[in-house]
Amino acid sequence: MDLRTRMRERLPKAGARWYEIRNQGGRATVRIYQEIGYWGITAEDFAAELQALTASEIEVQINSPGGDVFDGLAIYNALRAHPARVVTRVDGIAASAASIIAQAGDHRVMTQHSQMMIHEAWGVAVGPAQELRDFADLLDKQNDVLAQIYADRAASEDRPVAFFRDLMAQGDTYLTDVETVDHGLADEILVPDRKDAQPSTSALGADEIRALIADVLAEREPVVEPPAPPAGVPQDAAGVLLAAFTLEGVPS
Q1: What number does CATH give the domain 3-190?
Q2: Nearest-CA neighbor of 52 among 23, 88, 94?
């Protein structure tokens, strides 16, 4: 049993799921919001569930730091091979292997202010010199594969494989939503519409408010109306006050 398999067996199973699939009628939603592959479920299980979907459209919502490159490639190919129309939508970050999954969409969307990060493949190797050299060759080969996917999906003479290979070699390259579209790694930027605030389900309507006010007023002590002034006494405030002084014997 290899090291990777032994490490997988020691990982906790509960809560390890890193994706969610919902099938609602003719449209399915796949949400990938955690690390891909190594620390969660395998791409094999993902592909099996994906194959069972009969929806005509699948939206893949992504917010992931990446993960296992081979699982990322397997998920990319599984999505590309599915007969449904696939829309990939980056909600926060599509980094590393997640950026490859984002390329699987027939239509690729960057939500406003989301980002994509690409870089060279990397890993950890232990062994004699020849094994380390072989591992370096393997990483170079993966870099070529990833750059080819970016170039294929960009489909631009200005963005060949060499362009992405150089971009990846610069380290962790973070692309804004605008830069991602400019590089051909997405088709559009989604700017969510602002919704008008809706009243709370516990809010009172106008009729209920009027009824409540009426109830409050009904519970108050009755207001004693003052006696009507004698005939000939002015009705305005100043006149009433003047009449009061006069009636008390204060000369006007």
Answers
A1: 3.90.226.10
A2: 23
